[in-house]
Amino acid sequence: MSQQTTTAHAWQFDGYGRPREVLSWRQHSLPAPGPGQALVRLHAIGMNRSEFNYVQGRYQPAREFPSCLGQEAVGEIVALGPAGQDDAAAWSQTPLEVGARVALLPGRIDLCSTGAYRDIGCYPQAALLPVPDTYNDVEGAALWMGVLTMGGALELAGITPDTAAGKRLLVTAASSSMGVVALKLARAWGATTLATSRSETKMATLTGLADHAFVASDSDSLAAGIAAATDGEGFDAALDPVGAAFYPAMVASAAVGASIVSYELITGQDTPLPIAKVMIKDLALRGYTIYRPLRQPVLLERILGWGLEYADAIRPIIAGTRSLSDAPDALEELGRAEHLGKLVLLPEA
Ligand SMILES: NC(=O)c1ccc[n+]([C@@H]2O[C@H](COP(=O)([O-])OP(=O)(O)OC[C@H]3O[C@@H](n4cnc5c(N)ncnc54)[C@H](OP(=O)(O)O)[C@@H]3O)[C@@H](O)[C@H]2O)c1
Q1: Residue 334: CB within 6 Å of ligand 1?
Q2: Could you report the per-residue pLDDT of 172-185, keeping only the tens digit for each?
Q3: Which atom of ligand 1 is the closest one to the Cα of 47?
């Protein structure tokens, strides 16, 4: 194998701040891939809210500075190191050969040194996934974070292909790239879906994706929407990234035995917990991150399998594509939350 280095470029930052103020496009060189590694030229990069937060110091802390950012992308393997001894093995479904089209497995790349806002990167082979044949690169770059996050959160909430039928699932912030995947997966499995957004203008699209869609911006409007959609009976499972602003209504509006899975805290950390209602209604309150399946190989395999099996049913909604060279502006746009679905960055051809 050649020991040549490859010139790469990546967005990096030296300290936290607004994306436009702190991000800069820098050049560095990458060595030839070592054992268990692959050099991947990226063709499309999926944007996630965590990146907007990460740059501003509101996500997991940067391991060191300068730091890169980005966790989700599709690209082509341009060089492959020999098989590695890594604890985490490459997924058996991943095509590991030069020229193969692959995606990144969020959570298994070192965000700090090889974050995906770049043109070419060196990744563990265990961090590579297949792209469904029927997807273009942009769709492929918008698939796996949603599958890993929402597939795992659904499983934790007791909504799976075998158990979903007849269950009422509440998806808050449903216009997010995550929310759309949850709605599509749950619908494909036969659940009845309730979708919320703060925005009236997003209702037209959400109405097509969910059985019930309604505007909710606080606990009162959320409770009223759930009651109307369920004839006052409440939901059986909820996936929620909003947190404090919605929590009292979710507990009050849950059916007996319901599960509430929190996977972010967009409106702050603290919320009073009405423990009597939790107890009397026999509720399960769970927290979820993608690190749950990443710690459990059998669960990970099951969730990733859903990504391929249901690929056509969960084809991502692409809110728009932006040039990778405009990543700071695109992050500010993502922060304004006017989009529905996934924003995707494209490197210059
Ligand atoms: N736990 C995990 O492992 C994990 C993994 C991936 C993502 N996440 C989280 O999942 C969430 C969605 O990620 P994404 O990349 O799909 O985000 P996104 O596309 O940017 O969508 C986020 C949505 O959240 C809603 N929102 C924003 N601020 C809000 C506020 N103050 N109150 C209520 N709703 C608000 C907005 O919807 P409306 O304007 O339509 O209301 C917005 O469109 C993020 O919070 C992200 O951090 C967690």
Answers
A1: yes
A2: 999 999 999 999 99
A3: 15
